[in-house]
Every structure is written in C-alpha cells, then in structure tokens.
Specification:
The protein has 132 residues and is of the alpha+beta class. The chain has a single domain, classed as Molybdopterin biosynthesis MoaE subunit (Aldehyde Oxidoreductase, domain 3, Alpha-Beta Complex), CATH 3.90.1170. It has three helices and eight strands; from the N terminus they run βαβββαβββαβ.
C-alpha cells in the first residue's frame, strides 16, 4: 500500500491534491474526506482552532494505523494531510484520500482511519473563542 502522511502549517490545497491522484486500473473507488473548522466548538462560537502535534509520535501513530488499514482492507493507497497551527473557520484542517477496489472497502477504511487518528494520534486542538 502506498502511503503519504503530511503534517503541515501550510493551507491544504484541495484542488492540487485532487490533481495528484494516481490509481491503478484495478481500483474502482476513491474516497476523499475534507475536515473543515466549524464555527462552534462545544456550543461556543469560535473563530479558529489552534492545532499542535508531537510530530514524530504522530507520524509513528499514523504508520501503525495504516498497517491496520492494510491488514483489514485491500487499499491501494492512502494520502493524508493534517494541518497544524491556526486554522480559521471554514478552512480545511484534514484531507484524506483512500483508493480501494470497491466503495465499501474505501469508506470503511477511511472511517476507521479518521476514528483511530482522533483516538490515538497526538494532535491536539485548542479553540480560539469568538469575542462577540
């Protein structure tokens, strides 16, 4: 399985990522997930989220999750970009692409990856409260 994990302070360029997709002819499903910052966090209005990561441990945890994905589903490739630093409301903080032979496998693998990421990867978020 091809893997690409990027933790970056740069804005996520969804259009550029879409242009870089490469799938073999045997693959019939490409699932993308784009997580964006919403305007509320725990019922409070916010303007942004500050993401922090323990980068080396985050990369290690992502690798362990991807090994699990590879064991469970016939995924050809995974690309994941997670932004750190200040991310404004409506801006993407997470982009995931999974390529698999069938949609069920691709959706299941994507959901598992995101759920496990939130559970074990050391990336923390701190909401920036709105002053209104």
């Amino acid at each position: 399985m091809k893997r690409q994990i990027i933790i970056t302070t740069e804005q996520i360029d969804e259009a550029a990522l879409l242009k870089q997709r490469v799938a073999s002819q045997e693959m019939g499903a490409v699932v993308y997930f784009l997580g964006v910052v919403r305007a509320t966090e725990e019922g409070k209005a916010i303007t942004a989220i500050e993401y922090e990561a323990f980068r080396l441990m985050a990369e290690h945890q992502f690798e362990l999750i991807l090994r699990d994905v590879e064991k469970r589903w016939p995924v050809e490739s995974v690309r994941l970009v997670h932004r750190v630093g200040r991310v404004q409301v409506n801006e993407p903080s997470l982009w995931v692409e999974l390529i698999a032979p069938h949609r069920g496998e691709a959706f299941a693998a994507c959901e598992f990856l995101i759920d496990e990421m939130k559970r074990v990867v050391p990336i923390w978020k701190k909401p920036v409260l709105s002053r209104s």
